[in-house]
From TrEMBL:
Name under which the protein is recorded: Mll1839 protein
PANTHER family (UniProt xref): TRANSCRIPTIONAL REGULATOR, MARR, TRANSCRIPTIONAL REPRESSOR OF EMRAB OPERON
SMART domains, per the entry: HTH_MARR
InterPro entries per record: HTH_MarR-typ (IPR000835), WH-like_DNA-bd_sf (IPR036388), WH_DNA-bd_sf (IPR036390)
Species whose genome carries this gene: Pararhodospirillum photometricum DSM 122
Pfam families named in the record: MarR
Length: 154
């Protein structure tokens, strides 16, 4: 019985013209994102939320009367993904729906007092997480980091 032989590996050397993993901005963005998301998720557990539903609630609180379609545009979400999130937030009594005065097909979303309180508590906890996350950056560096990151995604 003859066994298949694995092809012999050829010795290669690193191509100096190509950047290493540590030279890639995306690598650092992803690593930082993972650390941030883990901390933000832990911070939001206290208000029984997760990052995406919390972002949706924050949009409603910051922009009373916003529609689901507008939230999707602001957050870069697919419309199909917001339906279950809105159902969860509404079940918790965090916002109310009201028909648009000019177009009854559009529902405007308004935070309840409870929704405002949950959003404020969540923001406070995430801000505390960020304070720890960014403790080694000066105030100026934090502003510059936000500015540079915004230039990438806006």
């Amino acid at each position: 019985m003859r066994e298949a032989m694995a092809p012999k590996a050829e010795k290669t050397t690193a191509t100096p013209a190509l950047p290493g993993l540590d030279d890639l901005v995306g690598y650092h963005l992803r690593r930082a994102s993972i650390v941030d998301l883990q901390g933000a998720s832990a911070a939001l557990e206290a208000v029984r939320s997760r990052p995406v539903p919390f972002s949706v609630l924050s949009c409603i609180v910051e922009r009373p009367g916003i529609s689901a379609a507008e939230i999707c545009r602001v957050l870069g979400m697919q419309r199909a993904n917001i339906v279950s999130i809105l159902a969860e937030l509404e079940e918790r009594g965090l916002f109310l729906r009201e028909a648009d005065s000019r177009d009854n097909r559009i529902q405007r979303l308004f935070p309840t007092r409870h929704g405002q309180d949950v959003a404020a508590q969540g923001i406070e906890r995430v801000a505390q997480h960020e304070e720890v996350l960014l403790q080694h950056l000066s105030v100026e560096e934090r502003h510059e980091l936000r500015r540079l990151l915004a230039k990438i995604w806006q």
